[in-house]
Amino acid sequence: MLMPEEFLFAKALWAAVMIGALLPIVGRHLVLGRAVLLGLAIPQIAMAGIAFVFLGTALHWQWAESIHEESGKALVGSLLFGLPGLLLIAAPWKRRARISEAWLAVVYLASVSATNLMLATDAVGETYLGDLFHGRLLFIGEPELKLLGVMLVAGFLFLFILRRRLLLTLTDPDYAAVAGLAVAGWTVAATVVNGMVIGITVATAGPLVAFGFLVLPVLTAGSFASSLRGNLWLSMVSGLVISITGFWLSYHYDYPLGDSVVATGCVVLIISRMLRLVPGCKARQET
Fold first, then answer.
1. CA-closest candidate to residue 37, choices 159, 169, 166, 215
2. What would the pLDDT profile of 208-220 be if each residue is shown by its tens digit?
3. The whole model's pTM is what?
4. Nearest CA to 205 among 5, 23, 2, 31?
């Protein structure tokens, strides 16, 4: 039975459960499309956007000061930089090319340095983004929780219903073009949806939690899944297990929630890889 004080963290638990269950479908595209570093770069670009809005407030820019709530600044900044950044990075996919991992690393480093520079003279923004980096789930409010839920469910439904076309477009664009699919159009559509989902997740839960659930559940599922369908459902189950276990550890031992959830995901991934050595547990098909 839940103790009365535990209800104080109900919103954080719901946020962790929704992110754990639904965000892996976005990460699945990144892993299967061999673009894992994209999942690292985009959350950091979104963080740079949040820092930009806080900088605008510190410099008394009228449009930035008109956003009164800190959570609103985070949401606007995350989408302001995150979505265009993802579209620009995905632009080479229209030409059936891939941006190199080296350039993704450069984008990540540039975003980190830009974020730190913009926060150098803004103590308020620096404190807020510091909390956000470690996972601000405990401070999530009702409006942010509803927005996160709507975006995650909408993104999941879009990516799930059209998963075959999207996966074919992202993993084998040449065959998709031969099959008559509009590769550029489907790529942009997937990019916009992924960017919106990642941006809002970063604004509400932070980049560490976002990147953790983009990658860790999918890699864990890849240890056992023998099909793409199995990979999807196991990714969701893994995300749920990671989020609930991490939340319990955070509450029971008074650890930071974001760090606890991601650390739990890393442990679960290591255990899953070790279990592959057990006969009958290893997946028959790598995903």
1. 215
2. 999 999 999 999 9
3. 0.84
4. 23
